[in-house]
Write a structure and sequence with these properties.
Elements: H1 2-20, H2 27-38
Length: 51
């Protein structure tokens, strides 16, 4: 499904951005990211640390 693929890609890019810039996530965001990641088992996150 295109919408599901877009959601998984967005999740991967959001997570990569947080990791790249060393941004934190509060408990609610972490729970939401974890929940959505479980629906995207084939998604991968790649990033290079900024700086």
């Amino acid at each position: 499904m295109p919408a599901e693929q877009a959601s998984c890609r967005y999740l991967s890019e959001w997570t990569a951005t947080k990791l790249r810039w060393g941004l934190s996530a509060d408990d609610a965001e972490l729970a939401a990211l974890t929940e959505h990641a479980e629906a995207s088992p084939d998604a991968t996150v790649t990033f290079e640390k900024a700086g």
